[in-house]
Model the fold of this input.
Amino acid sequence: MQHFDKHITGKPYVYKIEEVKSNDTTLIEVNDKYYSKNRSLSIWMNWKFGIAMSFCLSPILIGIGKEDSMTTMLYFIILFTPLIIFTVIGFKSSKKQMVMDRLKGTITFPKINGEKKSITVPFHKGKGGIKSYMIGDVMHTDLFFKTLKGVKPKVVGNLSEHYLEEVWNFTVWYMDKNRPLPPGTAFDPYRQQDFERRKTLGFPKPLYKSTVPTPEATPEQQAERKKIGGW
Done:
């Protein structure tokens, strides 16, 4: 597994307001306090798994009882059972969320490592990682958050399957409550109130390192931050 420290090293993933409002996205909430994402397979994805499983079973069952009505009924029950099972799984898992709490500096992952309930861990007690694994003949590469050695409970939680480095840079930026909100129109409605919150605290220095500029939304705000906070 390739590891990432809590360091903004490049351009973060940019969330647009259209993406947050879209029904096709897994995003649930994106603002100056919380970023939450559905980490369950969508109902449509579960349907696809069920259809695929039924398709795989059909050649095995194709020759069963063409004239016996009871056998034919059994054939259809067995054929459609995977579709029903994966549909139920899709509905039951639809509320599983990964939640980043910007102000508390924590990440909550839903029911992982055999736990019976969601687990909340401090962001500063973990690091990012890219892990590759095989599902059948297909190679998958995901971005994970992993707690540091010796930290309990041990957590390896999935953050993203796409734009891995950009999402990690976004995560570090967003979870640094002393920096302005990351770029992207999704955060535009909350920039002023986040600026005022940090101003009230005297613009404390950033929690994590960055090799890219993280300016305020306007030159006037940037000048005020530099005057009060010194950075």
